[in-house]
């Protein structure tokens, strides 16, 4: 069928959606998204929504860029696919590898390509363990991640992440991974200053390392700003203290840049914003602005040297590692972002503009905290503004707000009672005004419904 009702019925009966409670879908089923342009998506009825989530944190350049379509089309005709296993490569993959290393901090000069962010984190995990084995320290096996982190849905991604509902389903996690607290000041640290809380969270890393034995810890993995966990922006004291602990114990740092990479925080990588100098960085999403699936691990010289010089063959790789068409689109995406100064625009103009106007939402009776950095932001919905307490979970305040946002023509994501934005990086100041006006209207309506 080509009619919307028919398609929705097919979807409801056959398509197992990610992270979706099927029984809760109801008779109406899913929204059918059929088109998009700039920062707006459109459904089958022609309704437009301001996409403040950039798809799923990925459409950094916005929708409808003909240059990306042309890059894919040219490459599909020239060489749609070939592998990189047989001592073979292809032009866009080679160029993309060089371009990425050029954008990354100086000590990063190698890339391993994957098809997704989950695969990138799986790859990083295997590289870390291989690295320490090659260094003659195979007992350095433990990986420390953070509670509530999302690093993907493969078994390794889920294990590196700290999402309890995921880990409760689908069988055991990869062994040798443990998690420490997240630097979530609003929910967990308000009895002290953000500064002090950042240090307390870094102390938790030190304590876990001591409990495991410093010579048994291989790596720490984290996002610069935790995305799917709730757009958790760490206190300024957090990363310097974490870095100090890791360097004292010679523990590798793996930074998951799947969301923060490619301009989200106003730098090409979140690691640059926080001066992290990571050993490995996993990337995906914004690398191609989500137009085609591609990810990778950017490998620092320390690990690359050992893997290459001492390692011989690394028995690891994906059919779609260095996929020519995905690489061609990613390359064009990065070229456009650089040519149009998209990252600088976030750093100098739209990030600060959002920060100023977003913060003003803290005056709303429903909002306990409004935080943002670059073009990632969160709102904490609270029942009691003075106490900063959330609504009873059964009220599903966040989900209610998300649905009302859709009614008002805005896509905001809810994580519990935290509302999140991560709009396309090409959003203008006028469009930020529009986003905030829609969010305010949706919050007013949410307050009315929650109180009814
Ligand atoms: N890492 C982070 C921080 C993510 O947000 C995601 C996806 O949302 C992933 C990894 C997994 O990426 P993918 O869905 O491409 O496998």
TrEMBL record:
Source superkingdom: Bacteria
Keyword annotations: Aminotransferase, Pyridoxal phosphate, Transferase
CDD domains for the chain: OAT_like
Cofactor: pyridoxal 5'-phosphate
Xref: PROSITE patterns: AA_TRANSFER_CLASS_3
Molecular functions (GO terms): transaminase activity
InterPro entries: Aminotrans_3, Aminotrans_3_PPA_site, PyrdxlP-dep_Trfase, PyrdxlP-dep_Trfase_major, PyrdxlP-dep_Trfase_small
Family that this chain belongs to: Belongs to the class-III pyridoxal-phosphate-dependent aminotransferase family.
Descriptive protein name: Aspartate aminotransferase family protein
Organism annotation: Salinicola lusitanus
Taxonomic path: Bacteria, Pseudomonadati, Pseudomonadota, Gammaproteobacteria, Oceanospirillales
